[in-house]
Design brief:
This protein has five helices and eleven strands, in the order βαβαβββαβααβββββ. By secondary structure, the protein is α/β, with parallel strands linked by helices. Strand 2, helix 2 and strand 3 form a beta-alpha-beta unit. The strands form three sheets. A six-stranded mixed β-sheet has the order 4-5-6-7-9-8, with helices on one face. The relative contact order is 0.14. It is 20% helix and 27% strand.
Length: 206
């Protein structure tokens, strides 16, 4: 049984009250602590106001044994691209300072690196250099995961695991120059966070 659920943005497609209420009912049925961050299809203010009533949270920092999980908000008003605003970078710096014994997992919605798909790369994080300038000074960061791309992506950068999670909806064809729907069905990822800082990731297609 999982210890928790991470939902890495785009909780709904149309950010209206009824959609979030339906989502909350579905997530509650899992019976697990659930932590959510906003994606480009979300309304962060509405999302934060509606959740946090039960065991579904929008907490930005989660302590889990030897791990610290940090949820970053890359929502950019009026755009499908993402950006970590100055206050979000400052928040990250503050939470990484003094971390010695814990391993850190960073979560956001938009990919901070190219996924080699030109139409999706046009909607990635606009300021990845701001993110990596902080991470490169902090050796405790073990992995970065994100949503948004509707496909699995795996890479490594300076010893940090980079992982793009598939969608619980439809998947997009990898390495395509335009929108192409993949034949793969809905999927989720299982993350095993080991005490020694190793990360194992398994993709499960439904």
């Amino acid at each position: 049984k999982a210890d928790m659920v991470l939902v890495t943005g785009d909780l709904v497609h149309d950010p209206v009250l009824a959609a979030y209420q339906k989502l909350e009912q579905q997530l509650e049925s899992l019976g697990l602590p659930t932590f959510c961050l906003p994606g480009n299809h979300d309304d962060p203010a509405l999302m934060h106001s509606l959740l946090n009533q039960t065991d579904i949270h929008t907490n930005k920092v989660i302590k889990a044994g030897e791990w610290c999980i940090v949820l970053l908000d890359s929502f950019l008003e009026g755009s499908h691209s993402g950006r970590l605003q100055e206050q979000e970078i400052e928040f990250l710096q503050q939470n990484l300072q003094g971390v010695k014994e814990e391993s850190i997992l960073l979560c956001l919605h938009h990919p901070p690196v190219s996924i080699e798909s030109s139409w999706m790369d046009a909607m990635m994080l606009e300021n990845p250099e701001d993110l990596f300038s902080v991470i490169d000074e902090q050796k405790a960061v073990r992995a970065i995961i994100w949503g948004h791309i509707h496909q699995v992506f795996r890479k490594e950068r300076n010893g940090v695991v980079l992982y793009g999670s598939p969608s619980t909806c439809i998947q997009f064809k990898p390495k395509s120059d335009e929108f192409i729907r993949d034949e793969l069905g809905p999927a989720y990822s299982i993350l095993l966070l080991h005490k020694d800082g190793r990360v194992e990731i398994e993709t499960v297609h439904i």
